[in-house]
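Complex record, two chains
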Amino acid sequence: MALADALRHIDDQRRTHVDQLGEFVRIPSISAGADTDARGNLIRAADFLVGQFGQIGFAAEKVQVSADTNPLVLARSPDFSPDRPTVLIYGHYDVQGVDNPRAAWEVDPFAAVERDGLLIARGASDNKGPTFAHMKAAEAVLAVGDRLPVDLVFLVEGEEECGSKAIGQFVAEGGLDEFAPLLCTVISDTSMYGPDRPSLTLGLRGIVYAEVEVHGPKQDVHSGLFGGIVQNPNQLLVDALAGLVGGDGQITVPGFYDGLAPLSAREKALYAALEVDEAAYCRELGVAALAGERQYPLLERRWTRPTLDINFLSGGSPRTVIPAVARAAISCRLVPGQDPARVQAALEAHIRSRIPSAIGVEFKNQHISPAYYLDLDHPLVEPTLKAIRTGFELEPVLTREGGSIPIVVDIAAHTQAPVLLVGLGQITDNWHGPNERFSLHDFHRGTRTAAALFYELGQGS
Amino acid sequence: MALADALRHIDDQRRTHVDQLGEFVRIPSISAGADTDARGNLIRAADFLVGQFGQIGFAAEKVQVSADTNPLVLARSPDFSPDRPTVLIYGHYDVQGVDNPRAAWEVDPFAAVERDGLLIARGASDNKGPTFAHMKAAEAVLAVGDRLPVDLVFLVEGEEECGSKAIGQFVAEGGLDEFAPLLCTVISDTSMYGPDRPSLTLGLRGIVYAEVEVHGPKQDVHSGLFGGIVQNPNQLLVDALAGLVGGDGQITVPGFYDGLAPLSAREKALYAALEVDEAAYCRELGVAALAGERQYPLLERRWTRPTLDINFLSGGSPRTVIPAVARAAISCRLVPGQDPARVQAALEAHIRSRIPSAIGVEFKNQHISPAYYLDLDHPLVEPTLKAIRTGFELEPVLTREGGSIPIVVDIAAHTQAPVLLVGLGQITDNWHGPNERFSLHDFHRGTRTAAALFYELGQGS
């Protein structure tokens, strides 16, 4: 049986795969705030991938969407055939910076250090390792002389950590149209529910992000000289933002909850069955108690309830001034049924309504994206769970996540095909922090899962 | 007549005085955030003053209060005599930095550039020029062969722009006791009411300053992963600070106005008689309209009403985080009758009462100082006005100021003598901003005023 051969090959090549992943993570392909030097490393990482794909017979190329973006890597499996379904695999080769903070790194973030079964390196888990697992799975199928059960298209971007500009434009301009119809997209850029708890993630929250500026005098002025005659933008800003979230976790922006789809009893039961260690959350966060809408269980609050957070406050300086401007950044996480454009408009209107009309108020850098949701009854759910079972030899669970991956929504919308979110890393892998790590056991089992998924998806068509 | 001789001498020496002041302002004696290099310049400025005082026969010395402070310059006039009253003159030889912003300076801030009758240099008006005027006045009296009508003690500090630590300790520890009883202290570190509007400043507002920190998770966390289960310190902070000042300018902290002494009808009438160009204020501030307690005239709001301002807001970053900590700085300006310790306690209690008790809240860097006020009927008011009239050949006005100079209150309290605030600079001299300037005409008329004041105070005793 071909899958069994491929799995055996993956087991045999475990060490080689780790070594090759080591080469990949040694390239410091930092994209956020990248300077000219970093740009070179991004190109190197893209070239490395193109080379790897080429070695296994894929037709791979760098796609330069515009002059100021990092190249996409587009790779298609050999012998595309109309008798097979086409599956898109998305990943990203760019990584976060390492100054968060640099001193907290116990190892060189780009030395591919292995310790206690972990590969400790920036990008190991987010997202080089998981992307690599899919590539190595395809390699294994081809290596044992089998024909891939599905046509594969890899689309690996280099700007996930800085706004996904190129891929957004590529998808919007029909770059994926030649592969239509897709059976599905597979993305391993979420997390497993926990160690030895592999999962299929059904949903992601959407997002509304906005920055607001409240203007005062044309420059910071002395609070002794002018205090009492000039309106203070800091005061106007806090007045406008006060009580946006009540002590009960309720969001007070009128219309915020409009359209929100209630959680089905079946899905509610699924999440209620998952183990939750509230004390561990408190330790991890360093808080005495958790907060929010206590009438909802913890996982529902994290995954299925919308939120509003003031991410940023800034105004003046710690001395006796009345500032020229006060700034805040606010983001909402949205759930299925909420319309991001309506939430965005409601938030802006509410804030503006709380500031005197004579005051200058600007909204900036707004972006929105709806929630993503795969129905529990979608026909690809069972095959995916079966593949995870085969790859991990563990029973998978269904989850959602609280974060937002706008490109998931964009790809789903443009391809009209479901996105299967099969996370291979852990939530504790420290994606954007120091000492990011990826379990080599997860890498191995994830590679097996990817291979099994190709066969499941090939049969399902 | 001796005063007439001294005034003539001052008129004759006008150019020499400007050149000597140029030497003084060429020393970049920046104290705020001073590094080791700057320390050397502070010592140079102190030595320059000691040298200048020595040349006119004063017994001058540097007083090193503690190892980490900048020296005070203490200088006493020749032939101290029990038959003359003693007058203390306070000033400061340190200056603000020049990076506020540096690029906005049209000249080298330490080149003593003269243009259109102005000396454009950091420290020219704040406070080297006005301090120098008093010294040159004493020099003139001695130069024409007269005996000083009062014993003079100059106390010139080097830390006015960074907290007045040394002089505060010096005064608190009885450093001025040997000169008791003082007739009064004279300070030229306020402003004239306007060009050709010399003034005696009767009052300064006091201050309560506090920084508050609200604590959340032990580090900034991802608002997607944890939004909905963790309390956001930014939200808690804005909730606590909302409405501290109402739209009507009223401060809502319970007990804030306790003890406030009403403005006398006589003083109210004095300020009502002063010309006020509200449109010019708007242009200067860059606002469409002035704000605050509109039932009080503009000058009363600036000088005689207490205020509360949120000077600083800070929390998180402009991306999707829930911050570990949110910070604010708040300052109140106080007027006669208000007890700073009570206002400080009321403010802290009010803010704490608005934050759930399980949340970590810290108050930091608090400092307080009461308002200063010289009674309209004090016997030294008339002699001072007469001296200004002589020096400027203009009719002076009585004013207050909205700022706070804690050392004024300290000196008044420890010496039990009034402080005469005779500003020689303009409010538009840009003390802490770029292109600070001092009118050479004001310097000259101020030097004349200082000489006249010595004679007035000598007669009044």
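Note: The radius of gyration of chain B is 24 Å.
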